[in-house]
Amino acid sequence: KEYFQYDPSGDYLKPKSLQGMRLEKGNYVAIPYEMRPAASSTSPNGLLSLHSEVLGLDLRLYPDKKFRFFDPKSNQILRSYAEAEQDRLQAEAIATQERAIALQERQEKLQERQEKLQERQEKERLAAYLRSIGINPDEIP
Fold this sequence. Notes:
Order of helices and strands: EEEEEEEEH
Number of strands: 8
Number of domains: 2
Oligomer: single chain
Radius of gyration: 35 Å
Largest sheet: 5 strands, antiparallel
Number of helices: 1
Structural class: alpha+beta
Strand order of the largest sheet: 4-5-6-7-8
Helix content: 25-40%
Distance between the termini: 94 Å
Shape: rod-shaped
């Protein structure tokens, strides 16, 4: 129903390096493009935008030649695979770090418990020794 062509170098598709065609009544007709100013660009060229009825998305070509999908309903640029992968790796790194911190905290608590247990056992051993030599440990100030 639709097809799009993108020529990053601009050597083959003229006059615009992003073009789209839509099947209407058995014939492919050019999808009209819209030139609009790019909010983050100082280039007078702005961005080229084609709307895909099939996808419900705009295909946008920015002055810096970045090709992006844009969701007009949410008013957001969709992340590229590389961006999504970077976010996934960052989330994994954060989760790994959080697990390491939690493990370290558990180990510290365990070590604290072991130290308290050793302390209590040492006190009990000392009290038993004092009793064995006839001294009541409860009477020692």
